[in-house]
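Page header: ASSEMBLY MODEL / two components / 771 residues total.
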Amino acid sequence: MSKSRNLLIGSALLSATLTTPALADKLGLGRPALPEEIAAWDLDVRPDGTGLPDGSGDVWTGEEVFADYCAVCHGDFAEGIDNWPKLAGGANTLDHDDPLKTVGSYWPYLSTTWDYVNRSMPFGAAQTLSADDVYAIVAYILYSNDLVDDDFVLSKDTFFDVEMPNADGFIIDDRDSAEAHFWTETPCMEACKDSVEVTMRAMVLDVTPDETAAAEDTEAEVEEAVELAEAAETQEPEVMAPDPKLVAAGEKVFKKCKACHQVGDGATNRVGPVLTGIVGGAAGAVPDFKYSKPLQVAAEDGLVWTDAELAAFLADPKGYMKGTKMSFAGLRKEADIDAVIAYLQAAP
Amino acid sequence: MTDKTKDPGTSRRQFLGGALAAGGAVAGASMARGATPDPLITEVQEWASGLGDGVDATPYGLPIQYESDVIRRNVEWLTADTISSINFTPIHALDGTITPQGCAFERHHSGAIELRKEDYRLMINGLVDTPLVFTYADLERFPREQRTFFLECAANTGMEWAGAQLNGAQFTHGMIHNMEYTGVSLRTLLNEAGIQPEGTWLYVEGADASSNGRSIPMEKALDDCMIAFKANGEALRKEHGYPVRLIVPGWEGNMWVKWLRRMEVADAPVESREETSKYTDTLADGTSRKWTWVMDAKSVVTSPSPQSPITHGPGPLVITGLAWSGRGAITRVDVSRDGGVTWETARLAEDGKPMALTRFYLDVDWQGEEMLLQSRAMDSTGYVQPTKAQLREVRGLNSIYHNNCIQTWHVNANGEAENVEVS
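Prediction written out in full:
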């Protein structure tokens, strides 16, 4: 090291205007990372299996866990709902006009699937799955792609029994050679082609967001809001309005819910139902939303989302209602639950 | 600009509907003003008599209300929701090269998180002499660097592979921004931990729920990568990774990990989701290129363009746009007004800087003739921006990423522009 350091310092001296600080001795900043800290953050798993923890999961367990945590976006059979990613299918489509890229058809390494599920899923509740659950989910995804049989158990020991169909489907960036002809010394300036025809027009497709319409909508909304505010001023409040501070805190908590739920004016059903009017409202009552079986049953039995019921559900969704589609781990803090209920109540 | 969107005669909706105002009408109106005294001059205006806002009216200022249409926009049908999604910089309405943070495009995989400086930690581990943890305050004590770079999402222009689709430079080319960053080089930070000789890769990872992680060859990491805590002189915005993001000059935006929390020195790449299942480019035969990190030379005319039509009638016209290359500096930009038959060399506002946006201008006398406007960038390695046909010849239609083709705007006699593809 000392030799190269001298070289660097030497070149720095030669160029007094050098903008890059020369590499100097260590500054002694920071502190050593503790083994527990490294273990908590260093979770990545490599193609050779480095980083895989102990544990295991079978296909049938995986089907259940997948239904609980993943199916709400990815579908019961990993086929994908709406625009959410499809995880299964697409075998041998990569050279088609519209290739379907899934874990089975495209992903080259099983380690990537394990690593991604473990660290980044489920959406909105990342890093809450146990190692066994991750093994089980990945086993089920493999099964959905016809890559393993239904008696397959995934663990460190069986990890490399799985063959990923597109493992050899990748080449390293070869633009320098395959596209060498783009390095043209002198591009054409005159008479570069005989004729020019317009072959395609964006307006034919008409998929561009319309700014004028959006601007008008916003203006209309503002006007409406002003009118509503004026009307509200003339009325005596009939019910106790929630504490504004609590509502503001609840808005922050609601970020955890936003991935799947909308509330207020213009809210639409997403992965989860619209929550406008949920507090004190009948369960399972949002039109056009496909509720889970248990929630449908509870709704028929007359469940009403009182503060208490809602609080119990939010504290432990799956404990409160086994089989709910809501793949959310729950709110740990009572204060958060109170706040988010206040926010939902205050939403227009 | 607000006036323009409100004026029914020049609204974009009307452009899209194909309603054509009389060609000379706009120019006629402006000339007619010369015949009678302009009341804006002859009458004392309210702003020339009364008073404006006091100094503390906006402790942190936003653009004046008349610029309210210069905003990021998204294309809803592109993604399942807005949390894992992208929006676009209004490049059609900007000039110069620095992108204001407030309208610089956003791309999140699990939403823009709020991480306090006090709660921020950066870990360096793996093949190092001493694994280290830094606080934000620690990072501010390292020698600093200041550099300006563009960041382009690899998917910029990705919707245009199969044909002309989105009608506006914001939507076709707006997954880009260009900022002046202040921070610390990775060379300096990694030296503090001491890289072991086997350490040939650096895995970098964010603190948000997406755990976005990418593997970077150590050679690149030590060459010009840095962490940044300031952009355009002020703290990063949360949507760009406050308090600390990674800067990987010239390489695809996904590698510029936001809310950077960990750097692991390794002897092999992790092959994470974002470097295998995404950000890989499928060719016509079904094989896919991986590790296509560098962004090829590219340019686009930002005005006139579909969202920025010519409204002033015949006469002097400023054609302007942006050019950039991940391989080096822009050395030349040519502009064609006839769909690529003849080209003229545009004027660069400043000499191109490596891996940063370059502004170009072509000042012309427009007499209402139809134009097929194109721009073609060249960089310091001699690379010439290809046509879409040239790209398709090598890559097919399914690459999604790295579409750096020459863009064409059709400008009609009224000055309205449309995204088209030409033979």
